[in-house]
Structure formats: C-alpha cells, structure tokens
Amino acid sequence: MKRKYEQSIEIKGHLIDSMILTRIFDKIMDLKGDFNVLEFYVGKKKDELSYAKLMISGKNKKHLDQLLESIYIEGAQPTKINEVILKSAPKDMVMPGDFYSTTNNATQIFLNNKWITVENMMMDKCIVVDPRNSKAECRKIRDIHTGDLIVTGEQGVRVLPEERPREGVDIFQFMSSSSSSERPTQQIARKIAMDIYNTKKNSGKIVVTAGPVIVHSGASDSFAKMIRMGYVDGLLTGNALAVHDIENSLFGTSLGMNVKNGTLAIRGHRNHMQAINEVFKAGSIEELVRKNILKSGIMYECIKNNVRYALCGSIRDDGPIPGVITDVIAAQNKYREILSDTKMVLMLSTMLHSIAVGNMIPARVKVVAVDISQAVVTKLLDRGTTQAIGIVSDIGAFLPMVLYQLEQMSKK
Asked: What is the pTM of this model?
C-alpha cells in the first residue's frame, strides 16, 4: 500500500479580500502539490473572520515539507500545534544549520503551551528565545552569542500576515502593491498626502529615506517644507544627498548644474567640492547652520526642527563630510534606532537605502516607494517589502504635488 504524505492545516482571517487563501492555493499549485478543502466558512461581516481547513498532499516527505514551509509563511498552521524546537548557537555569530529564517510579518512561537509574540520583527533574521522569561526576539546574526537558544525548523511557528485594511480611504486601500506608471498621478499624490496627514494627526512617526535626485530634480524645496511643517520625523540617507543639498543651498547648483533651469553654472564643476570644503571648515553641518552659513535646504530644516537623521557612507563618496557614518554596522544600528516605532516610511528615489530600510521594518509599517525607474520599485517589492505601495514617477514633479495637498489639508 502506497504511503500518503499529507498534513491538515487551517487558516483564519480575512482570507478572501486580503488574498491570503489565493496565495496559499497558488503556492501549492506552483510546487506541484495537491489539496482538498475540508472546511470553509466565509465571514459575512467586516469584523467577522473567515476560516478554512485544508488537507495538503505531497509526493514524499521532502515535497510535503516544502509545501508546508511555503504556506506557513502565508499564515497557515497545522491543526495540531507542537512546541517550537530550540537549539543552542554553537558559537558567537553562528546559528544552528536548520535555523528558522524570519519574514517581516508579525510572528509568534508556541512555547510552554502558549503563543509568544516575537519582538523586534525584521526579515531574514533568526529568533532567539528566553524560555525562563517567556520572551522571543528577532536578532541579527552578528548579535548571536554562544549558547543562545534559537528557533529551528517550522514547528511551533505562526506567521500573522498583514491584511488589507477594512476601514478608511487611505492609499493602502486605493491601490494594491503596484509599480505601474499608468496610475492617475494627481489622485495618488492626494491620497498619499491624506495618509501622511492622518498618520501625523494620530501622532504617528514618519521616516523618509531619500536619494540625491531629490535635489537634482528640483524637489528639495518641497521636501524641506514638509520637514518644516512637521511631516518628517527622521531622515535616512547618504553623503550624496547632504552634499548636493548643501551645494544647492550655498550656490544654487547640484553637481555644477543650476537647479532652477538645468544649465551648467560657470565654474560650477567645483561647487560640489567647495560645498564639502565648507562643511570641513565649519566642522559639521550643525556648525554650518549655527554660524549662519547654511540658511536653507533639507539638512538646514532637519537641524532647525530637531529631526533626527543618519548619513550612511559608501566607497564612492566625495569627502565624506563630517557626520557621515563610514562604519556600515554602526550605520545600520543608527538606521534601526531612528526607525523604532515608525508608522510610515517614504522611500524617495534611492534603491539601496530603500532596500536596506525595507529589511529593517516589520510588515505593519506602511511604505510608499517612489522612483522614476520601474525596475527599482519592482526590485524593492521583490526583495520582500511586500507591503510597499510602488509608484513610478519623477520625484521632482510628484513631491510638489504631495506638498500642495498637505498644504491644503493643513488649512482646513
């Protein structure tokens, strides 16, 4: 008699409108597995959850394990819950071979007959458990110490995927995750502005990661005004944005080009290095502001309005200017510190900083990513920041539209 390799699983939540059940079906079929629906109940009210019980079948144990692993990430659970399996780290910065790799979704582990919520969720990390105090936290590999108890395998792990909001009219209901350039741009700008406005109205924290194209494209005045109006609580960027912003504020150019009309400034090629030199002469950007040399711009508004910022260096930096963190681990830690308790992140025309930030935040954080290149937006979504709304647009035209809508809302 041929042995059956099958496992019953169950899923609860807003299974239909959040596409959870559809994703589970797709994954099973993509992996050439089979399933039977044993029970299915559809919630008929907005606050009523749906429920499904399925029997998943594989060709062999390895195939079944592969199927189960793929759908557990989407929130499915075995009908019989076993306790999580813990193994000790063999030495510092080394995890057991079969460690559980996290997603950015809310996650729980089953320990001592109860579900424990994992703290500090980030994607592509591990879960370290303190059984004595019934605590679990997401931790980076370099923070692992010999003897730390680490979750291994999928057993006793429950992922709680984000569900589509059922109330309100913000951008995250208006659009699904998308990178289309054919959306009505002004309408999207208005809805993003509405969500920014409502987030701040409810005392939510908004962090922006941005690239130097904000300055090149002429959007720096709009961004600076958003900071001045109180819509930005943190800025995560690199040496380039700060340098180009200071160059623009001091000389009206960015990489030697007049920002206002796009023409090449006379001897403008040296403005970039002169801006860097001015920061070195002052000793810091803060001193440049204090001495009344830097009187406008993005960095000026951050300093004047006590907005925390982190400048992460790279090998291609000119300078880098004082204040740029050249130790990438220290920069990561600073980014995470500023991102703590953030409700919304705006990713504006920077691929590498956006992907880095996406890896540091849980799925419950709202993310809007804007870039003129569809490939950049798509790459961000593909790297796991699936909660992001992707918008393909010129930031130089898009950000002023968002600012205009914010100004109109602030008048009401």
From this structure: 0.79
